[in-house]
Amino acid sequence: MPTDSPPLKDGDLLAAVDLGSNSFHMVVARYVLGQLRIVDRIKETVRLAEGLDGRGGLDPAVMPRALDCLARFGQRLRTIPPRRVRAIATNTVRQLANPQAFLMPAETALGHGIEVVAGREEARLIYLGVAHGNPPEPGKRRLVMDIGGGSTEFIIGEGLDAIERESLQMGCIATTRRFFADGKLTRKRWKEARTEITAEFQQFASAYRQRGWHDAMGSSGTIKEICDISVKMKLTKVSITDASLSVIREKLLEFETLDAIRLPGLSAERRPIIAGGLLVLDAAFTELGIERMYVSDHAMREGVLYDLIGRDREADPREDSIRALCDRYGVDAAQAARVEATALSLFDQAEAAWNLDADNRRQLAWAARIHEIGLAIAHSQYHQHGAYLVEHSDIAGFSRTEQQTLAALVRNQRRGFHLPSFDKLPDRLVANVLRCALLLRLAVLMHRSHDSDPLPVVELDVDGDELLLRLPRRWLEGHPLTRLDLEGEREQLAEIGRRLVLKAI
Fold first, then answer.
1. Per-residue pLDDT averaged across 103-132, rounded?
2. Are 157 and 280 members of one domain?
3. Which of 51, 87, 95, 383 could be disulfide-bonded to 62 (CB atoms 3.0-4.6 Å)?
4. 149 and 217 in one domain?
């Protein structure tokens, strides 16, 4: 199987699927002259966040409507190559104690893998979509806000680059359930809710105000609907202002229950959750000092499409993030390059027999470059320290799934295998990630001495769970420590049902 995917060409279709906490979205676009032309959009209100029980569980009653929606999306995606489709899950799936219990049937229904992204990565993708759809003025910063069902993202960016990113657990569904769970609406309850919400802004509001921005833009269905209300009430023409928001809030508080709310421009679909969304937006205007906010039709799903183009054009943000990790933790660049070269040489020899792909090759290369970042903490157990840093750092461009893959590779580069690190991965990825870990282990082992002298030709044949490694006899005799390490590696592999055969030639 070739490791390189064919580059994008005019006429190719790309698709992004956004499994939001309130709605699932799909957008299909055609790549034409370096740009995207949207050819199809589908949105379904699923209200996934309504199924959260507060203990990391998901109400089984929510599953059928989620899976039915994904099956319909899957039908539309059937003719698009998998490498051109990216499906992203956000806050609700992030909160699940066992996300795989949802993701496995969801991936089956959709027919594609689904990645879970952290809040700040979600924020980056939101900004990317808005910035492409509504380019900011050159040299001027913009604030972008997106109120989802379970979380709200705040981004300050310039051009196409996100400078500041924050994600708070205060979406329209989550906030409505938190403060108005019984459906009752009172001024006293609103005031108490505002006090709690305001406290959560303290962690970043001051820094955002100091950074400053030229204009503010909202990108979510909730903000669009509040803008529609403002326009229908003849408070504004194309935006939301602090004054119009105040009028809408006062009008809302005239109703005693959520079901009774009737506002011009408010849809029946949004009515049950508008109170929570308005509460968040109202607090944001006050705490961030927003005077006017315009609305964008673009959001995370468009950002995912442009991210796919960036990866195809070798403008992959993940490459910059890996370089940043290496710089931050003082990685020995020469040693990392040696390990990477050997790991990729082994990969190329095992690729066909193990059915490895381009994503596996990239992950192996990145893991080789950062395999020693744990040394910045301590030499003892540095592979464990490195895996923790990789899994829990904010790494732009990487989904949680991708970070957990990298963490599993770094964690298993030496010593005994830590199989629980593979349990965090989707089943569809485990076999190949484990195989890449075997290759990384061999590369790290053969460069243990940090010797700058080049290795001899290393030959590798793989057949299922068996690895046959061939090295020159004279070189092995001159490197007794490496030979001893290889014999020890044979024992480590045997413990997980793999067989390593070392042959001197």
1. 95
2. yes
3. 51
4. yes
Q: What is the CATH number of the domain that holds 23?
A: 3.30.420.40
Query: Tokens 């040489």 — which residue?
Result: 345
In a domain, 348, yes or no: yes
The pair of three-digit structure tokens given for residue 381, joined into one six-digit string: 């157990």
Q: How many domains does the chain have?
A: 3
Parallel, antiparallel, or unpaired for β 141-147 and 215-218? parallel
SS3 assignment, position 152? strand
Q: Identify the three-state secondary structure at position 220.
A: coil
List the 152-158 sheet strands across, edge first: 161-168, 152-158, 141-147, 215-218, 292-295, 239-241
Is the distance from CB of 26 to CB of 38 less than 8 angstroms? no
Gap between the terminal Cα atoms of the chain: 28
Residues 369 and 344 placed together within one structural domain of the fold: yes
Mean pLDDT over 324-337 rounds to 96
CB 50 within 8 A of CB 61: no
152-191 per-position pLDDT tens digit: 999 999 999 999 999 999 999 999 999 999 999 999 999 9
Strand order in the sheet with 23-32: 35-45, 23-32, 13-19, 85-89, 114-116
Nearest to 37, CA basis, from 13, 16, 6, 18: 13
Which pLDDT value is given to residue 7?
83
Q: Where are the alpha helices (DSSP H) in 447-479?
A: 473-478
Q: What percent of the chain has pLDDT over 70?
A: 99
Are residue 321 and residue 390 in the same domain, yes or no?
yes
Query: Does residue 499 form part of some domain?
Result: no
At residue 4 the predicted structure's pLDDT band, cuts being 50, 70 and 90, is low
Return the SS3 of 54: coil
Residue 3: strand, helix, or coil: coil
Determine, yes or no, domain membership for 479: no
Residue 40 domain-assigned (yes or no): yes
What is the per-residue pLDDT for 211?
A: 95
* The one-letter amino acid at 502: L
Q: How confident is the model at residue 33 (pLDDT cuts 50, 70, 90)?
A: confident
pLDDT band at 2 (very low <50, low <70, confident <90, very high): very low
Report the distance separating Cα 109 and Cα 67, nearest Å. Answer: 6
